[in-house]
């Protein structure tokens, strides 16, 4: 352990998941002597819940008994009036015993130094979020990649928008207090969108590659969810993006060569800005042409599916939940 790790405040890491994944082991291996990892699932039926009797892990994970004492599995229960993710984070915040909090997810790699890097970011600039790059794992997911890099990665990198996969803050940083924040979490869908409403956050100078999709249906549901989140939390930006999408699609249809060259160059420049070495930037042209159709579909959808539940999100704090 370095001197900086010894001097920093202890940290509670919240990781919602239904099963013990490689990400859990990666984060657990980075805990300091006074840190804790809370693996948060829904109910006893989730596979990771079996580890509750083992202190959050087992010796075959290559961890010492001392480390097992700092890994806890927390049951959040079924959500009522909010998303499963928001419910898990709210329960995790209440169960966490440290003042400094880190949120993360189980769908990307946490390399050695990941936790130390976030803590160093906090010491330098306060609440900090890492920057996600969503990489499609199915044809439709890859088709959406340019839109995710331009409409997701780029805005987060500019600061002010939190990404729940990698964000560090302290309870006292929440503008309206923790109780108000938790109340809002328990009646909405987006955990990180709600956090951004209560927290001033800066962006780290690095990205994390996140798998997006799995099947075309999952990619479509993710697209709908992402747009619904931005619609609720940043309505003016969403209106601007819709207008821009229609304008670029019109340009590509009316002047195909110039339009395709422009959007491909913009996409390629954005990929290069974040070190994304994927040929999917070449899909920017067809993606832009199709985007008004997908946007219209996403904006008119009354429900979307996420994590085995269907959500009807009528207003920011009006959510119906049902199993699928």
From TrEMBL:
Its main location: membrane. It holds the Pfam family Glyco_transf_21. It is found in: Membrane. One of its GO terms (cellular component) is membrane. The keyword Protease does not apply. Pathway: Sphingolipid metabolism; Lipid metabolism; sphingolipid metabolism. The keyword Transmembrane applies. GO terms for molecular function: glycosyltransferase activity. It is a multi-pass membrane protein. This is Glycosyltransferase. It comes from Halorubrum yunnanense.
């Amino acid at each position: 352990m370095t001197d900086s790790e010894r001097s920093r405040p202890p940290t509670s890491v919240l990781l919602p998941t239904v099963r013990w994944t490689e990400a859990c082991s990666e984060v657990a291996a980075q805990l300091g002597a006074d840190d804790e990892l809370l693996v948060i699932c829904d109910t006893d039926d989730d596979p990771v819940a079996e580890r509750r009797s083992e202190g959050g892990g087992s010796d075959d994970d290559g961890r010492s008994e001392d480390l097992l004492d700092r890994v806890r599995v927390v049951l959040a229960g079924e959500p009522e009036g909010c998303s499963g993710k928001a419910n898990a984070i709210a329960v995790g915040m209440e169960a966490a015993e440290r003042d400094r909090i880190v949120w993360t997810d189980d769908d990307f790699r946490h390399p050695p130094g990941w936790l130390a890097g976030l803590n160093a970011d906090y010491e330098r600039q306060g609440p900090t979020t890492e920057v996600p790059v969503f990489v499609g794992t199915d044809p439709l997911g890859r088709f959406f990649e340019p839109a995710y890099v331009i409409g997701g990665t780029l805005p987060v990198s500019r600061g002010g928008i939190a990404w729940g996969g990698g964000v560090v803050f302290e309870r006292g940083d929440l503008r309206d207090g923790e109780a108000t924040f938790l109340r809002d979490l328990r009646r909405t869908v987006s955990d990180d969108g709600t956090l951004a409403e209560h927290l001033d956050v800066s962006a780290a100078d690095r990205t994390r590659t996140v798998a997006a999709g799995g099947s075309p249906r999952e990619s479509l549901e993710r697209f709908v969810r992402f747009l619904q989140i931005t619609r609720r939390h940043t309505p003016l930006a969403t209106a601007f993006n819709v207008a821009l999408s229609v304008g670029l699609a019109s340009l590509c249809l009316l002047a195909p060569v110039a339009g395709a060259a422009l959007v491909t160059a913009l996409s390629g420049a954005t990929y290069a800005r974040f070190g994304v070495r994927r040929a999917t930037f070449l899909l920017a042209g067809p993606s832009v042409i199709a985007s008004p159709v997908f946007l219209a579909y996403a904006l008119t959808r009354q429900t979307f599916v996420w994590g085995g539940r269907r959500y009807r999100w009528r207003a920011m704090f009006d959510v119906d939940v049902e199993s699928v």
